[in-house]
Specification:
Length: 256
């Protein structure tokens, strides 16, 4: 890959209480690239996604989208300060995020859950929003559930709606935080199938996952996070078949 990364983190530090969760992490993903992040619980994987999605603010370090710094603005004395929420919301449009839990509005049907992002965030008129949302729900295989409520759907169906809700804003990059971890095993495949189709279409993606087979098949690069640092980065074949670090070998042995 060449050129400016689509999404980049430079020197990210994040501490919660006495625990240093990220220890100066550098990370980037290029246009059309799929990166899979693996690692034990508490290693910092979800934290870096939340920082890149502008849901949290790093203690130090920068987030850049297509080379432009996000989340902060410069003050008259040359220092930086966090942007107000309304400006952060505008920047978040370019970064779609899908969580472990689906976070759908229980009182809204499927169609309204997806159109809400368009009408409230992008200011699109309702008729146009309905057309766009319907097309996106068809893309994830949910066109026959437009007027169902989340409580009437399986976990896999709810997660596909959540993916449609993020995609409908036409983000530059999609972040997935263990999107199948809350699903029953028999429902995992339907969500991974949607994600694989997204990757095949050229979507830039960062995926925190424990699904090793998915990472091997779909990712361009696989990374191991541990104790707030990146231990190893390699193409899937090298990462899984010939890891260079003892920590990676230990993790993979437990994963399998």
């Amino acid at each position: 890959m060449t050129g400016t990364p689509v999404l980049e983190a430079v020197g990210l530090h994040r501490t919660y209480g006495q625990t240093e969760v990220l220890k100066g992490v550098d990370f980037s993903v290029d246009k059309g690239q799929v990166k899979a992040l693996l690692g034990p619980s508490g290693s910092g994987k979800s934290t870096i996604l939340r920082l890149m999605a502008l849901l949290e603010h790093p203690d130090s370090g920068d987030i850049l989208l297509n080379g432009k710094q996000l989340g902060v603005t410069s003050t008259s004395d040359g220092r930086s300060r966090r942007l107000p929420e309304r400006k952060l919301a505008v920047q978040r449009r370019d970064i779609g995020m899908v969580f472990q839990r689906f976070n759908l509005f229980a009182h809204l049907d499927v169609l309204h859950n997806v159109t809400l992002a368009l009408t409230e965030v992008s200011g699109i008129r309702k008729a146009a929003a309905v057309d766009q949302a319907t097309a996106m729900l068809e893309r994830v295989g949910m066109a026959d559930r437009l007027h169902h409520y989340p409580g009437e759907l399986s976990g896999g169906q709810q997660q596909r709606v959540a993916i449609a809700r993020a995609l409908v804003l036409n983000p530059t990059v999609m972040l997935f935080d263990e999107p199948t971890s809350a699903l029953d095993p028999e429902l995992v495949g339907e969500v991974l199938e949607v994600m694989e189709a997204l990757a095949d279409s050229g979507m830039t993606m960062v995926v925190v996952t424990h699904e090793a087979r998915f990472a091997r098949r779909v990712a361009d690069e696989v990374m191991l996070f541990d104790s707030g640092t990146i231990v190893e980065v390699a193409p899937p074949e090298e990462f899984f078949d010939n890891p260079q670090h003892d920590r990676t070998r230990q993790f993979l042995a437990k994963l399998h």
